[in-house]
What does this fold into?
Amino acid sequence: MHAQTTHRVGIIGGGSIGIAFAVVFAQAGWRVRLFDPAAERRELASTEIMQRLTELTRFGLLAETANDIAARVTIVATLEAAAADADLVQECAPEREDIKRDLFAQLDRIAPPHAILASASSFLPASRFVNESLPGRGRCLVAHPGNPPYLIPVVEIVPAPFSDEDAIARAIALFTEAGLKPVRVRKEVEGFVFNRLQGAVLREAYCLVRDGVASVEDIDTVVREGLGLRWSVIGPFETVDLNTRGGIVSHAQKMGPSYARMGAERGQNDPWTADLVAAVDAARRRVLPLDQWDQRVAWRDRALMMLARYRKEAARNDP
It folds into this structure.
């Protein structure tokens, strides 16, 4: 069921992310107003929202009817109408500093004083487009989603140095209430966490194609049928923690030199120092004491078995 509290959200931008966010917030029971400067986008928005809700219904992922959820979304013709009475304004404009800078200047004037102003920026930190002189800059931050957020729930909350702690806490609470999984990024870096991790894989993938090591299809196969399977149930640190008896420390001792040589091939010098390995190990041990290692490995295998069963059934039923 949707959240008990009905919040009001203004979405600026009717592209794929804006449409997807409308689905997320309406599904949470919130009132959504969506604005796009292009009349064509505004005309198509309702149809595209219903298309996504229909597909979610088909897979049994909605607690209400698509019509009930879609009824909470209103397409509006002005920026002012989208921001009026909003608790959260989610900007989903193109990845351009000039556009975002202008939008945030306008939104700070017209949005209610309590409203969080969040950008769906994929690479640009808020410091790049929120003017230092903006009176309400303390409520501005980045909220970068996975795409599409109604299926990939992680959202990166990236404050600027000038973002207020209260605004950050309220943003995290709002996105959590909407059913997403916020992760606070502790420093402003281009690309944040999601795209830096994705970029590291992509850079190596391009190099492997360039160097004649593997084909595009084979690299996709390695990720889809290998790394991606594990990463769908556990992350990269837990993966190596469970791959080597003794956990992170044992893995770093055995495999660290090889990874360092591979990095050096690409001109990288980012060694896994003893202090860094100890910090990562301490974080993992707080989550998983080594005396529970065998049980967690068995859990991982069961999770992969369930995934394998689903993939087998999906392949059988795929027309």
